[in-house]
């Protein structure tokens, strides 16, 4: 039986082998190697797992997980769904992604549940069949939304504010928010921004770039807007809506708190973090690894306080190998030769455009150090080769 080959494949998968073993005991079961309780696979579940692997293209691991969310004993209805998706231009990989995300779709009536949405995307938004398949397979929630109650009103609302082209672009990007967009929730939030002086052009920009923030409940939206305003952001500037996005954008809240903790561990005060956030809001949704790498280099190699980066938070986003290390190498060499001050400014060295840095710190000293230009290029070349 196919499930036995699944069992065998999972046994051969080293990652899963360290976690569990599968065995057959009057059906199939999943048990931990430490003699933990086994999870029984009754015959009807075996059938679903087999089908998800052989017909839908799911991996054994994903099939076992997906089987918890769908149940059927005959292939008629799932087959009709798969046939429908194939006729609509979905590739095997896209079908696997769609079923993995929403296994319950296999029990749908595709002509009734899916076709109206796909026709709306094609006829009203003007998206090609291939693009629709790619977008929907990434964001299957779109197929759960009513055309009349959600998709069409959202499209009309956005079209009225940001225009047809930007609305279509928003959908083509496969925006998560398009499936969650509700004009009844969005309208009070847009009106509130207008009340506090956010220009219409900036509201349009925000809706096209950060639509998910407008999907917040109004009380929550007002709270974060007032918070950002209280931090000193100007409602008439683009940095204002970027700060709102960083604070409350999809998946950003946990990142913000994590970044706050990382900076604090490096000795940044609350004022330091606020200053950096005001200058470059995205510094609060950067990866912990990136922050740590840059600050460690600043402290250990440059001999500066980690707090000094708070004044120039864009440094966090510079490439270590292609920018920070090569430029530091030049500045370090120049300072050891007493050609520049040893307490050179981080901003002066790391922030300027490449041409400015070359002119001011490389070409300017080629008489004293003829090899300086080649030295600098060698540092950048090593980064490219790496």
Describe this structure in words.
- This protein has helices spanning 2-12, 14-17, 43-54, 60-66, 76-87, 92-101, 110-113, 115-123, 129-138, 147-172, 183-195, 200-209, 218-230, 238-248, 252-265, 270-279, 288-300, 320-336, 346-350, 354-362, 372-385, and strands at residues 21-24, 28-31, 39-41.
- By secondary structure, it is an all-alpha fold.
- It has a three-stranded antiparallel beta sheet.
- It is globular.
- This is Mitochondrial transcription termination factor family protein.
Termini Cα gap: 48 Å
Residue share in helices? 55-70%
Walk across the major sheet and give the strand order.
1-2-3
Give the H and E element order: HHEEEHHHHHHHHHHHHHHHHHHH
Q: Main sheet?
A: 3 strands, antiparallel
Q: Could you list the spans in which at least 5 consecutive residues all have pLDDT below 50?
A: 10-36
Q: Gyration radius, to the nearest Å?
A: 28 Å
Shape: globular
Note the total helix count: 21
Mean pLDDT score: 88
Q: Which structural category do the helix and sheet elements fall into?
A: mainly alpha
Number of strands: 3
β-strand amount = under 5%
Task: Write the SSE topology.
Elements: H1 2-12, H2 14-17, E1 21-24, E2 28-31, E3 39-41, H3 43-54, H4 60-66, H5 76-87, H6 92-101, H7 110-113, H8 115-123, H9 129-138, H10 147-172, H11 183-195, H12 200-209, H13 218-230, H14 238-248, H15 252-265, H16 270-279, H17 288-300, H18 320-336, H19 346-350, H20 354-362, H21 372-385
